[in-house]
Recover the amino acids of this structure.
């Protein structure tokens, strides 16, 4: 698995610590790590089939469908696999899986995300300052007095901690337009964000923002004019901290 799984400890550590250990460290820490024996792609497909066959159609299946996509199983391959097993496990189960899979695999559709402003293009210019994939759609020219862009974060994506510095004026305003995300200033509790929320970021304030683990997130970013404006990029928001939010 690309990221260390902590679901067992997050949910059950105080109630069933041994089960939490077996789930996080043995199943996901050791069994899934045996890629020399069986690839992550094949393990994902086997796991999805096993869960569907057992009638497990809850959030754990959704997690493994997302995992299957992340591990290289295409939409066409996934649809064919579920079509095949439907004749053995039952049509109602297949219907339930397809509803989940459509939501997850439709993330590939540029028209489906980014709110009313659209997804834009991969944010390659700033990718070194992000964990995960993000997209940028400028809405005004960088030469305008106020530069506005629509920024979209894939699930789990967030930018590094940073500051908007300026000698005079400056700062940034975020207006949330799609999905669900996080914003946090240094020394403050993380703020959950949803469409319609507005965040005013003063110059020199250390902060970060991005999507939640299970949702895309888009916001408009308004760059406030000022003298001597610059971005100061700092340390990333590590997986251990982020996954506890």
């Amino acid at each position: 698995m690309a990221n260390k799984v902590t679901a067992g400890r997050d949910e059950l550590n105080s109630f069933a610590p041994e089960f939490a250990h077996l789930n996080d460290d043995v199943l996901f820490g050791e069994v899934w790590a045996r890629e020399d024996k069986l690839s992550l792609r094949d393990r994902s497909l086997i796991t999805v089939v096993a869960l569907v066959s057992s009638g497990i159609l809850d959030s754990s299946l959704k997690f493994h469908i997302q995992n299957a996509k992340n591990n290289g199983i295409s939409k066409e391959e996934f649809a064919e696999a579920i079509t095949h097993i439907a004749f053995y496990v039952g049509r109602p189960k297949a219907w339930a899986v397809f509803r989940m899979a459509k939501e997850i695999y439709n993330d590939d559709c540029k028209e489906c995300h980014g709110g009313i402003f659209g997804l834009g293009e991969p944010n390659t210019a700033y990718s070194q300052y992000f964990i995960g994939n993000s997209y940028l759609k400028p809405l005004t020219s960088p030469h305008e007095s106020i530069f506005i862009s629509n920024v979209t974060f894939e699930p789990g994506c967030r930018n590094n901690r940073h500051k908007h510095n300026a000698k005079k004026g400056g700062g940034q305003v975020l207006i949330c337009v799609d999905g669900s995300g996080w914003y946090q200033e240094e020394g403050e509790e993380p703020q959950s964000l949803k469409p319609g929320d507005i965040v005013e970021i003063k110059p020199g304030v250390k902060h970060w923002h991005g999507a939640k683990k299970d949702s895309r997130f888009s916001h408009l970013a308004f760059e406030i004019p000022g003298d001597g404006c610059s971005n100061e990029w700092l340390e990333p928001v590590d997986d251990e901290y982020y996954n506890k939010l």
Notes: The chain has a mean pLDDT of 90. The chain has two domains: 34-108, 111-242. Residues 212 and 242 are 9 Å apart (CA to CA). Residues 17-31 form the longest helix (15 residues).
